[in-house]
Amino acid sequence: MIKHVSAVMFATATLAACTTTPSPTEPEARAPLAASSRTLNMFREGLDQACYDRATQPSTFVVDTHNHFRPFGGQPRPYEEVLAYLEDSGVLFANIYGIGQSLPYTSSCTYYLDCPGVPATPSIQNDMANAANLATNRPDNLVLTLSATFPDLANPENVNDVLDLYDATYPGLFQWMGEVNLVKQALFGNGHVPATPEDIDDWRGFMERLRHFDMPIAIHSDLGSDNDPTEYLALMDYALQRYPHNKIIWVHMGLSRELTTIPADEHIALMSDRLDRYPNLMLDITWRVIADNYFDTPENVAAYTAFFNQYYDRILTGTDFVASFNKTFNVYAEEVEVNSMILSELDNRAFRHIALGQAYFDLLDLPYRAPDICTAN
After folding, report:
1. Hey, what's the torsion of the CAs at 84, 73, 184, 12, to 10 degrees?
2. What helix, strand, coil percent values describe the chain, rounded to 5?
């Protein structure tokens, strides 16, 4: 966490030369997916808005709520190229995440797990680079929401000061906060410290600000590990109890690489209980760790499908893609396909809200409408 706004201003001034980073690799030749036939006009409400034919049109999602346009370290894919990844995959709406934790510029690593012991330090550099890119290139064919990812939830004292800087530099551009880490076990080896209940109490200043501006916050909070599946549940529970009026997105449904064996019925019961108690809570079902480990049997698919059908307006889609220089379109396209795998099983109401994005549009009060699902005459 940067402790003084003056330090933040200095960092901002140094970013002008690095907001558009050349890629060390040439863009690959690729064929757009069938989903790329989707356009924003399909989501503009009007008397002639066509219905969506699930039998002939793609089942992949149209909203990537969790896309990291910048990596932990090293060079990113160029901004314009990541925009092309979205369009060519049929993704029309996306949250632009940075990554709040940056590896030292002197490090050769692009990913924190490749560098145990190297600190991943909270920083504004990715957010400001994303803001500069969006401010100078907002495409007409995509709807992009910029997110502030810098906060260190264990040291929240200056979050509002930095948000003041963001608003002064890019008025009105930041409309979301997160992904921010309450507890992320994978980062323990890189200096991450979970927030305590006392730290959570100290969020009150910026959480009031988020409520005032109706901004959601997406929180990474691991449930636990295979050895203790609910080891950290109390931390998220405390945050939900403390800030019930904030729009909170629990990313990855609390799952992680450290927790791949909790029975589906137990996990669903934990999530259902929190959704019932906290009407402003939503779940992000991004990251292929979930699909690979929990949507992997017919029984689990049936259980999670029923869960998503029940909470159809509380579920958000996405990839958790990280746009490091080695992540090509084929990688992104696969992430879209894998993270959309279960969507074809949803009933029509849930498909419209989840796969076609109505839950996201409602959350942000966006002027778009998911098309109705075509029904047989």
Report:
1. -90
2. 40, 15, 45
Query: What pLDDT score does 2 carry?
Result: 34
What residues contact residue 232 under an 8 Å CB cut-off, 6+ apart? 182, 183, 194, 221, 222, 223, 224
Q: What's the pLDDT at 16?
A: 37
Q: Tokens representing 350?
A: 């849930």
CA 212 to CA 207: how far, in whole Å?
9
Average pLDDT, the chain: 89
- Cite the beta strand spans of the chain per DSSP E: 63-68, 93-97, 101-102, 121-122, 143-148, 174-183, 217-221, 248-251, 281-284, 315-316, 321-322
Please say if the pLDDT value at position 64 is more than 50.
yes
Residue found by looking up tokens 């530099």 in the block: 169
Predicted TM-score of the model (pTM): 0.90
The CA distance from 37 to 207, in Å, is 39
More confident: 324 or 360: 360
Instruction: Determine the Cα angle at 6 with ends 210 and 98, to 5°.
Output: 50
